[in-house]
Every structure is written in structure tokens, then in C-alpha cells.
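Researcher: Please generate the 3D structure of the following complex. Treat every line as part of one assembly.
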Amino acid sequence: MRRGGALERPVIAYETWGTLSRTRDNAVLIFTGLSPSAHACSSPADPAPGWWEEIVGPSRPIDTRRYFVICVNSLGSCFGSTGPASPDPETGEPYRLGFPVLTLEDVATGGAKLLDHLGIERLHTLVGPSMGGMTSLGFAVMYAGRARNMLLISCGARSLPFAIALRSLQREMIRRDPDWAGGSYAPGHGPVTGMQLARKLGMITYRSAQEWEQRFGRERIAEERQTGDPFALDFEIEAYLEAHAQKFTGQFDPNCYLYLSRASDLFDIAEHGGSVEAGLKRVRAERVVVIGVTSDFLFPLHQQRELAAGLRQGCANVVLHELPSIQGHDSFLVDMDRFRPLIREFFEAAG
Amino acid sequence: MRRGGALERPVIAYETWGTLSRTRDNAVLIFTGLSPSAHACSSPADPAPGWWEEIVGPSRPIDTRRYFVICVNSLGSCFGSTGPASPDPETGEPYRLGFPVLTLEDVATGGAKLLDHLGIERLHTLVGPSMGGMTSLGFAVMYAGRARNMLLISCGARSLPFAIALRSLQREMIRRDPDWAGGSYAPGHGPVTGMQLARKLGMITYRSAQEWEQRFGRERIAEERQTGDPFALDFEIEAYLEAHAQKFTGQFDPNCYLYLSRASDLFDIAEHGGSVEAGLKRVRAERVVVIGVTSDFLFPLHQQRELAAGLRQGCANVVLHELPSIQGHDSFLVDMDRFRPLIREFFEAAG
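Model: Done. Output below.
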């Protein structure tokens, strides 16, 4: 592991769609954001809709008839890959806080090891939205030449203090929940309240004020749902956050969340070369598309501009798209009318 | 109280500076944001610096040699005015959640009653930053003709869902702290953790990403302050939030915080006339200055634009200033180089 420690025989969970070509030149690797699993798209083996169902699939923008698409569950996560919730082979007990410090470079290394295992030397395209975009940058500087093209979405060359503050507070909400118990909660139990609070703050940072103004305004919830408690749910926006928090409960292991959240804070491409500029200069790819969203305040537009400018040092063909979506950081998951054509166009141009 | 219930012999705490003129035409009333006391400025009786020390005082922009300046502690607060922490005369015990639902109109009424008590029929100027700005609007529609001039800073005609979401989450952090005990904590004790988390989220929403980028970047805290805990304070921004949260602890009563926070969510000038436009049309003042800040995401600039446009229906002289401060919602407390001259100019023009 980059910051010390080691994992014995770690597992990397992944899913694939499509067929690897004989020349092994059509592989597309997707690194995910903080919370998704490797299930980007439904398949005969798992017909449940994936987290990027409208983007990945036959005839979809990342066309699985044409590309061999791989999505990995990040090292440190809890959907099959080894993470703090996995048993430590030494003790048989979950690693919990005994898991070594996780960095996005470690997550990238997990992806590189998977490619070795699959016998893929060079990716057609490396795709990374959000945290996955930073992981992709880490991959590109550490494994030079392995990504022919790159598609970087709503990410940055490093985490800035505003995003760090928000994530640090989310982690504190979890750690301050008495049920966190220093990370030693029983599997499946744990800091439900802390996770719900953290998820609500997450939702607030993933969307935008403008979207909510249009969607909810000052609408109140139905009268029959109102209670006498003056601090219970009242506005629709409060009910919306509550519904999202409830849905998230039990889905994600709290310790895994802490590790991946902190890994995001730690990421800084400047660690690879001494400065952001020098780090980005090391990236070599034939074609890079960077997509940013005007209403994203977790990874604001100036970060994608910095990224595009820095990548132009070492890559001949870098295109930056600034999208006026109003759904904030989450736009790549919901504003399909804007993202679909751009991603389709990217792959058509990349050939 | 606007939403039902009544308070028996409530107290409104206030401070004054300067001298009321014989014609009683030089009174300036300040409604505060959510957390300050009435101590806007130091005085011989209380030499501690006030929360608006650089704005209020002799020769300062709100010149106490010229004006009789009054600052009230909001009804529902805990710095002398009656609020949820005050004893209910019926039981002798603190009101706690037995306090009636609080609105900013009730806070405004507290100010109006104080003016009656002081024998002031008409204010020279009503000044309201942040929550105090919404309170001032409530005052203006309910007590027509009592404010000759108005200075509204970093506020809006109503609370929008993004700000409601943030405040609702702050309240939930407090209510979910087991030490809140349904509001029945012993005086001076209570949900310290919840209050600290809420304060941290508050600080995040009061400042701006740009400011923190310039101020903190990715600076780490001194090595000697670092511990082995991978989730302890690491970045300077985390230490900054922690210091602010610690400072806030014990200063503000948690139940009072809940009531004032919720009062902010409830405010909507549309309740006075059927629409925002109709509500604002009722305001009559000779001169209104509205100040907004580009980096404020709690009360974004389009809210001050809406305010200025709406107030122009009933007020001949409305000026809107859009300041490029990078300190977000808190700019009126810290970006003195921009606020001092504007406020000085306002009072010079108002005569």
C-alpha cells in the first residue's frame, strides 16, 4: 500500500460486458465514484439495473457490442473487493481500522492488477467519473502507456479544502455516532444515524441549489404525513433527503465509507512530480475528454479547466466540455440528455 | 405568537449606543443574524468587542455620535431575551420544546415592542444582515411606516430549499445527539457533539470554497499535533473548523438554536400578500440599499436581485450592490474593506 502496510491476497471484484477482441485493443475500464459497486449495467447474470445503466450497454454510449467494458469495485469498498469490512486473514475478523491507510493510487493499482489478470496490456479507454476520475489520473501517472484514451468526468487533479471540509464532517458524523464504537460495530450493525446524516450532507453536496429550487421550492409535505413535532419533516426537500438517507442505510459499510472518503481527501496529483502541473504533464494519452458541470460545487469547473490545461502538456488532443447542467456533481448520473451524446461522440471519435 | 400560543411578559434584551435626538428621528435598529447577542459594539458598560465592532461606534460607518443605535437580541435567543432556555413562568422550568413555534415575524414584533417602550415611532434606519434581514422585511410589512430607510444585507425574501436542507440537517445533528434528550438536557449541559457538528456545517455554509483555497489550500497541521489515528485532524481546514466548533460550545443554547434555525426556514414574505412580489410591494421606505455577495451560497445573489426588484414597486430609491467578496455569507462580518465604505455611504446619503 502506498502509505505503508500490505494486504495479503486481496480480492478485486469486477464485472465485464462485451467481448475482448483478439488483438485485446477494445477494453474500456471504469473506475467508480465513492459508493457504487462494479454493477454499472444490467446483464443476463444480474438483470438489476446498474448505476450507469443508460451509459453502458449494447448500442449505448459505451457500446458493449463494440467494447469489452470492465467496471471494478474499488479496493477498500464493500461490494466484493477487499476492504475494511473484509476478514483479515491473520485474525479471521474484519480489518476494521486495522486496514492500512487507503489512497486512490492503491485503488488504481487494484485496477492495474486486474488488467494483468485479464491479460490486457493497454486499455482502449479509461473512464472515471468523480472519485473514479482521480483514481484514473493516479492510474495514468503510475502506469504510463496503459490508457490510450481517457474520459474524465466531474473530478479534479486533487481535493481542495472545501470538499475536504465536507467529507471530513461526514466522517465525523459517523465517528461521533456512539454505535460506530471506534469501528468495532458488529457486521451489518453500526452507526445508522451517523451514516444517514453523512448521506444527507452527501446529497446536499451532490446536487445544486438551482435544481432544488425548481424541483421543490417551498413545497410542504402532505398534511397527513405531518406530526405535531415542530422539528419533524415539513418541507418536501426534507422528505427527499430523508428518503435518500433511508435508502442508503445498510447498503454501505461505515468503515469502508470512512476509508474511501479519506482516500479522496488525500489525493493530489502533485505527489507525482512535485506540482499539479508536473504531475499532469506525466500523463500520456492520445485523446482526453474532460467534462465538468457549472453547478458542481464539490469539484468546481475551475478544477476541470486546470485538468485540461495540465493534460495538454503531454497529450495532443484534450477537449474540455463545460456543461450547464443544474444537477451539480451528480449530473453524470442523472442529466442523461447532456451526457449521453457527449460520451457517444467521444467513443465515435476515438474509433 | 404568529403560529399560535403566547408568551407571558417576555423580555427583550437590547443595547444602545449614542443619544436619541429630541425629535426622536435618529434611531437605527439592528436585527441580528441567528447567533449574535445584542452586543454589536463595545461600550463603557461592556468593553468587550461587539460582533460588528468595525461597523458600529463613534466615527464608524453606523456613527454612534450621530445616531441612537439599538441592537436587539432576537426573541427566542439566549442572550437575555425570552427563549426556549428561559423559565416558563407557569412552571418555573425552562420552556424547552414547550416554547411556541417561533417565526421571524415574532422576532420583528419583539423589536417593535421595544421601540414602543423607548418611545420611538419611526426609525431613521432599519438594518438587517442575514436572518436579521428577513426579520427586517417582516418588520417592514407588519409595521408600515416605522422604518424610513432600510439596509438589507445578505438576505432574501424567503428561505429556499438548499438553505432549508442545510439548516434542517444542522438541527437533525443536534436532535440526534443522545445528550439532547428530547430537549430536556440540564441547563449548561446538552448535545455538545451535535452542536459542534452543526457549527462546522454552519462554518462551511458561511464561507466560500475560494476563500479556503487561498487561505488553507492543502496545508497540513503541524506534525507535533498529528496523532496516529488515520481519521484525526490532518488538514489545516479541519483544524480551523474544529477550533470554531470548540469556541461555539456552551455559548449558544441548543434548543434556542433549533427554534431560530427553524424560524429562518419558515420565513416567506409571500405570506404577506400571497406572493413574493405582492409581499415586497407592501414595503414603503424612502431609501433601501440591498447588499449581496457573489460567493454567498446560503443567500445567493439572485435572492438580493429579487429583493431589490420587488422593493422597487413600493420604494422610489432602491440600490443593489453586488460585492465580489470571497468570504461568502459571512463577508459582512469580515470583509470590512468592502462593507465599511458602502455602509458609510448609505448613512451619508440618507442624511
